[in-house]
Amino acid sequence: MIKEGLVESDPWGSWSDCSPGIYLNRDIKLSQSFEKYIGKRIRITVEELPDIVPEDEETIGISLGRIIQNDEAIDFLGLNPYCVNEGADKNKQYQIPIYKAKDFGLI
User: Fold this and answer.
1) Are 30 and 64 members of one domain?
2) Cα–Cα distance measured from residue 107 to residue 67, given in angstroms and rounded to the nearest whole number
3) 87 in the Ramachandran plot: left (φ > 0), alpha (ψ -120 to 50) or beta?
4) What are phi and psi of 35, to 5 degrees?
5) Of the four, 19, 30, 60, 65, which is 20 to 30 A from 43 by CA?
6) What is the tally of structural domains in the chain?
7) Contact 91, 65 (CB under 8 A)
8) Is 53 a domain residue?
9) What pLDDT, on a 0 to 100 scale, did the predictor assign at position 1?
């Protein structure tokens, strides 16, 4: 998601039932570190990152053929859903944390 807009300070005033602070076009609250950008147009890019998996987390090998049938697993691994059609080996094993494999219904 890319959001562009004007940084505003306290767009709703200082009433106790409002959310005073620093906002991007009144809809995204920014941290105080954005104070230097008040009155300036900025662009913020947000990238959703995969879950951080502890190094000691148990994983399980799941074949690509099973993974491509599950949109959540495809997104989690950052795969192209058409990779098998493009010649990828559907028997290749991908390591997925067990808790994620359960969430995705793969085990």
Assistant:
1) no
2) 11
3) left
4) -55, -35
5) 19
6) 2
7) yes
8) no
9) 62
- Cα 79 from chain centroid? 15
**What is the CB-side half-sphere exposure of residue 25 using CA atoms within 13 A?**
8
Average pLDDT over residues 84-88: 83
Residues for the chain: how many in total?
107
Three-class HEC string of the chain: CEEEEEEEECCCCCCCCCCCCEEECCCEEECHHHHHHCCCEEEEECCCCCCCCCCCCCEEEEEHHHHCCCHHHHHHHCCCCCCCCCCCCCCCEEEEEHHHHHHCCCC
Q: Could you tell me the pLDDT band of residue 67, with boundaries at 50, 70 and 90?
A: very high
Indicate the residue type of 63. S
